[in-house]
Known about the structure:
The chain is an all-alpha fold. The protein has a domain at 23-55. Helices cover 51% and strands 0% of the residues. It contains 2 helices and no strands. Helix 1 (23-35) crosses helix 2 (40-55). The longest helix is centred in the last third of the chain and has 16 residues, at 40-55. It starts with 22 loop residues before the first helix and ends with a helix. The model has no long low-confidence stretch (mean pLDDT 92).
Amino acid sequence: MAKTGRPVCGDPSLHKVTVRLTDKEYQRLKAYAEANNQTMTQAMKQGIDLVYQSMNR
């Protein structure tokens, strides 16, 4: 019988991080994500990448 459900991801997201934001920070993140057609998670991951890149210069 064939397997059903979602296929296994090549690089699964195994770790969960929780961040508390002020109302102002939340609104800024939400506005940025909407303006760039991203989810808030995608915007935060992009920010993490930018910080990491600036460390390795």
